[in-house]
Specification:
It is built from 16 helices and 19 strands. With 572 residues, it is of the alpha/beta class. A five-stranded parallel sheet has the order 5-2-1-9-19, with no helix packed on it. Strands 10-18-11-14 form a four-stranded parallel sheet, sandwiched between helices.
């Protein structure tokens, strides 16, 4: 009997296991399956861990989670695995298109994912050929064409391996290394090198007499901000249900000060209030088909290109049509669609491009957040960049499908990924309420926006002294790094990945990107090496595939393609 292992049982590993069982049942084939995962709630991964606090919110609308479909009943090796409802069926989701979109706590989706996994494990308990191993994998070796998996206490051997391990830590930047050395010699200071698990911040949660620096101004910063301020000393209250305008009320006196910062200081852009407003930015089916064909025509057939016009041109054409159709809802103009298309392309190619239709980012950060909130509410004219960001979000699933495993050169792959990452300030934006909470904390004199844009940082005996361009300063005794490491394979510092690289069992698609894989998810090995029976799905394959961070991509066709390919080769 063939022996197969999955390392990592987050959402992607869960869907891979489901599709593996579906394909095996169709082929009437049985194998030994072992699942390795170190977490206490398999199916969730760290991002959706069901034990995390309610202050960690989903940043995708609950409405959009319609993409997590139900699982059919599976009959595998004479065992019946009952079907499992879709996410919407499970949580009995109902929403009027004019009601504000819901963004629940991440642990809610975690409970669903864990229950979905447990329903498989319970059904397969009676089979000796299935086993869940709660352990961290330390090493993977190839011996006589067999995969050896090593944990702290044991080792196993398999014919094939699937890696779905998600985010991995990378070597710290020079800045973080300097900070690490500083706190070693100054014991009164505290440095949190990662924002998650957020419960590690419990030690400082009620220390409301301190200045806390937060490196990063994105989604993780908002989780940190919420966790630290929903405490015995105060909480948020929505005072206008139509706009989510929020106040922060103090139940006890506190002197807490949060100082977030990033290189550009630009805030996240909230998603539209509800489905009705969101449809303003929805491309037509014809436009999405045009977008897909334009990308595929180049990405799948043209290795040597010098630009990413094949991406920026079609999305600019779609966005210009959408912006014209906004009419009085958008910033007033008298430009033709062709003229708008040129402006959009200029902005996509240069993030510093300025135009009257594009939101001026040189205003105060507070006012900038207010403007984007009102655009999301549909109460002020929409800027062209806001429109581009929302259209991009609607086009992302098509882009991810059409461009994955592109045959273009590595530089073009890197440029596409860089532009998609830049878009995420808009397309992966938080709910309106999150940004209203940022403003509420500024109003309550708890969060300061004075240092958001690349402050000078001096290390002192008192901590991190931040200074802005106006010579205003603040010294923080605690620093939290909320910047998520990019999946640069050559910089990953977890023992498992370093071991795979050292043994030349994997190689990057580009020095700045992830593992090179085939369309079926299998690792592409160096030319002088034999193929290895390892498949990789998810974040570590970034570059071969894009869009790996989206939850809906964990339940997508890439996983289905891998399962079909694996079972097909079993029968060959």
């Amino acid at each position: 009997m063939k022996q197969f292992a999955i390392i990592g049982m987050g959402p992607r590993g869960l869907y891979a296991l489901e599709n593996l069982l579906i394909e095996l049942s169709k082929a009437n084939t049985h194998i030994k399956i072992h699942v390795f995962d170190a977490t206490s709630s398999p199916g969730t991964g760290n991002v959706w861990d069901k034990s995390q606090p309610d202050s960690n919110w989903i940043n995708i609308t609950e409405r959009a989670l319609i993409g997590i479909k139900k699982r059919p009943k599976i009959v595998y090796n004479n065992v019946i695995i009952d079907g499992f409802p879709s996410y919407h069926e499970w949580c009995q989701f109902l929403q009027n298109s004019n009601e504000p979109d819901a963004f629940p706590a991440r642990n809610k989706l975690g409970k669903y994912l864990n229950a979905r996994y447990k329903s498989i494990e319970i059904a397969l308990e009676k089979l000796e050929s299935f086993k869940f191993i709660k352990a961290e994998v330390r090493n993977i070796n190839l011996k006589d064409q067999k995969i050896e998996i090593v944990t702290n206490s044991s080792s196993w051997h398999y014919d094939d391996l699937l890696l779905t391990i998600g985010h991995q830590s990378t070597a710290p930047s020079d800045q973080l290394k300097e900070w690490q050395s500083h706190v070693v010699s100054h014991k009164s200071l505290a440095l949190f090198e990662d924002a998650y698990p957020i419960t590690q911040l419990k030690a400082i949660k009620n220390n409301t007499n301190s200045n806390i620096g937060i490196r990063g101004f994105g989604l993780a910063m908002i989780d940190v901000m919420r966790y630290l301020t929903i405490n015995d000393f105060g909480n948020f209250k929505v005072i206008d249900q139509d706009t989510f305008e929020t106040i922060y009320y103090k139940t006890k006196e506190q002197q807490l000060k949060l100082a977030p910062f990033s290189l550009d200081g630009l805030p996240l852009v909230p998603k539209p209030l509800n489905e009705t407003i969101d449809t303003w930015y929805q491309p037509t089916t014809k436009e999405l088909n045009f977008f897909k064909s334009e990308i595929e025509a180049v990405a799948q057939h043209t290795p040597e290109i010098n630009s990413i016009d094949f991406l920026t041109d079609p999305i600019a054409k779609i966005t210009s049509r959408v912006f014209i159709d906004l009419k009085e809802k958008g910033v007033s103009h008298s430009l033709s669609q062709a003229e708008l298309t040129t402006i959009i392309i200029n902005w996509l190619n240069d993030e510093n491009y300025r135009h009257p239709l594009i939101q001026d980012t040189n205003i105060s950060t507070y006012k900038l957040i207010q403007n984007y909130i009102e655009m999301a509410l549909g109460t002020i004219p929409i800027s062209l960049d806001y429109c581009i960001g929302q259209v991009w979000r609607h086009c992302q699933p098509t882009l991810y499908k059409a461009f994955s495993h592109a045959k273009v050169n590595n530089d073009s792959i890197e440029k596409v990924i860089a532009l998609d990452e830049r878009s995420k300030r808009y397309s992966y934006g938080p709910p309106i309420e999150s940004m209203q909470q940022v403003l509420a904390l500024v109003d309550a004199d708890i969060l300061t926006l004075d240092f958001v844009t690349d402050p000078d940082i001096e290390l002192t005996t008192e901590g991190w002294a931040l200074k802005n361009s106006n010579n205003k300063s603040i010294t923080c005794s605690v620093m939290i790094n909320s910047v998520l490491d990019a999946p640069k394979l050559l910089e990953v510092n977890t023992p498992l990945i370093k071991d795979l690289l050292q043994n030349e069992l994997i190689q990057p698609v580009h020095s700045k990107l992830g593992i090179d894989t085939t369309a079926d998810g299998y690792v592409i090995t160096p030319e002088d090496k034999d193929d290895v029976p390892i498949a990789v799905l998810g974040r570590l394959a970034k570059g071969s595939v894009i869009g790996v961070d989206a939850i809906l991509e964990c339940f997508g066709p890439r996983i289905e393609d891998w399962a079909k390919a694996y079972v097909r080769q079993l029968k060959d």
